[in-house]
Write the structure tokens for this entry.
Amino acid sequence: MKSINHIQDEIIDEFSILEGDLDMCVEYLIELGKKLSPLSDKHRVEDNIVKGCQSKVWLIANFQQGTITFQADSNTMITKGLVSMLVRILSGQNPDDILNSDLYFIHKIGMNRFIGTQRSNGLAAMIKQMKLYALAFMAKEQK
Amino acid sequence: MSNSGHISQIDNLTQIRAEFPILHQQVNGKPLVYFDNAASNQKPLSVLNALDHYYRNDHANIHRGIHTLAERATEAYELSRKRTAEFINAAEPEEIIFTSGTTEGLNLVASTYGRKLLKPGDEVLITNMEHHSNIVPWQMLCEEKDLKLKVLPLRDNGEVKWELLDSMLTERTRIVSIVHASNSLGTINPISELSDKVHQAGAILVVDGAQASAHLEIDVQALNCDFYALSSHKMYGPTGVGVLYGKRKWLEKMPPYKGGGEMIKEVTLEKTTYSDIPHKFEAGTPNIADVVAFKTAIEFIDEIGKNTIIQHENKLLNHAHAELEAIDGLRLIGTAAEKVGVVSFVVDGVHHFDLGVMLDTKGIAVRTGHHCTQPLMECYGLEGTVRASFSVYNTIEEVDLLVESLDAIVKKLRN
């Protein structure tokens, strides 16, 4: 498994090819969104919704052999693209690394520039929820 | 579409656009197209200059000072009240109360008239297309006073089922509160045709004029409403100022809304007597500068003429309707016969949020979501819509650009 920072750096590289062109960045996000496999209806339920997102995001997490697998989905394509990057970075990592991760790629790829504040808040809620899962699984493991 | 009075046209749109400095900028590398006017429209130079002039030359606190600046500020503030009264044809300036916006105006009526004059079991009637500002204050009042909130349902095209009005007005109906023009659908409600029925039933008619005031002729006496609330920032004026018109007979009966300076006649530690209207309802130092500049916004509208504005916005609206409908899978939400320049739509299989973000990358500002009308969205089974809304400075070319961009975006999102 690649480290969190390794994957972040890969994403930063991919975005650097787009040279900060807004149209292309958004199109790339949409492409990423389309590639993310959708969650089944049984997981697209109220309990799995991440609060704080302007569009709906569903997030589920499984803990097996010391690592967390995240699966997520959204009803909007752009959010799906954002969510897919978080899943790519944090899924398969151990709770400790997830909790201590510094997700600098958001700033580096200029996400704040093309995803407005309200939507960034949604992203922040998503990250918070992923870290909460990490915390919960870690606590469970230590019992 | 609604056209009243003589037909006139905007002769020089370039000249009007030159009055709005904010429009002349690039957003995301593209010339700004501002279609979020129903949320708040932009301010002409004359309004910006009025604010600047007031603070540079005339500012002081109003009504109590005896010095020259206080006199000047008071005069400017009260002149704004007089001009507002003329603008909506109130019988007298004393019937004009300055508020922070339509929301405060409606809350004021609910908190004063509603609290004092309604009794348990009484009914408040609204429609299913109301903005949250014209739902929540009544819900709060109903909860507090044990009243019943009744709701007039809608037709598929975004009109109210007015044929049900007679049966929904009962001897217990005390307040009927209705939006003049819907912010989500654009539908214009036939206020003047309703007032007789409402009054015969023994109720008062409250009108939410937030969306109508920049687009329709407002004559509160012809409408024969008891209250009319509007917001300056939706009519080329500053934010933070609204107007509540109320008939004198009601304003005099109503208790004050807030306590403080300005609204008192005499205060002792035992008892306070209140000022006459309108000051009874304007506790504390008001938003003087913005009220003063609001007068300039009214003059901007009057100079162009409401008929000319209506005519121009209808042209944009009709063009937008016709062109948007050609987009595959696009469905217009709100196709009433009488509309202001608001176009709401959804596109099959594409989320409104994606459309909004992608239009923004093209420099086009629209609004997406429920537009503070969640019960309306629920009634049509929608989470939200994309809304483009027009002002006097928008052009046919901008509408074409919206349609063209949207067409390309929809194709991209579907592929």
Summary: Residues 13-42+305-414 of chain B form a domain with the Aspartate Aminotransferase, domain 1 fold (CATH 3.90.1150.10).
